[in-house]
Design brief:
Layout: H1 9-17, H2 25-44, H3 52-61, H4 71-78
Protein name: Chaperone/heat shock protein Hsp12
Organism: Dendrothele bispora (strain CBS 962.96)
Region (Disordered): 1-83
Length: 83
């Protein structure tokens, strides 16, 4: 479960697993906005205040804010879904 004020893990997974070619412009913009908002929340929330689940979720989604590719992006690359 994600921490209060953070994007749910289910929403993140749904956005990541749907191929970009199947998303509308509105969905692309919404994903970008939600991702940026969640990334900002990740940066502002001290590690010491994050739940264990949130720490794991941030690690998997790349919200450590150090410009590394996320595991989701790497998986999409491997499946040919990032284009």
């Amino acid at each position: 479960m994600s921490d209060t004020g953070r994007q749910s893990f289910t929403d993140k997974a749904e956005a990541a697993l749907k191929p970009d070619s199947e998303k509308s412009t509105t969905e692309h913009l919404g994903d970008k906005l939600k991702g940026n908002t969640d990334s900002a929340a990740s940066t502002l929330q001290p590690q010491s205040e994050k739940s264990t689940g949130q720490k794991v979720g941030d690690s998997l989604s790349g919200n450590s804010n150090n410009d590394e590719r996320t595991l989701t992006d790497k998986a999409k690359d491997a499946l040919g879904m990032n284009k």
